[in-house]
Amino acid sequence: METPQKVLNLLTKREIDLNGSTFRRLMRNGFRYVKDLAEFLKLPDAMDYYYIEQMEFLSDLSYPAMIPPIDIMENRPDIYRKWSI
């Protein structure tokens, strides 16, 4: 039996099932799925790989995520400031 993959919803900060109805509903409502949040944010280009703290930060952000649409992000500065989107 395989464990279902989980994706982080940046709006609610909860994990959702990649194959579940919530994931499909969010996709229909304009949310965007990214396989690697750190890569989407272009963080690997700005990192100094000799600093352990920066590498730990990068690995903490290396997970799949659901990004809300722009119209939601405009009203939620707590999201775009925290994630630099």
From TrEMBL:
It comes from Diversispora eburnea. This is 11975_t:CDS:1. It comes from the Eukaryota.
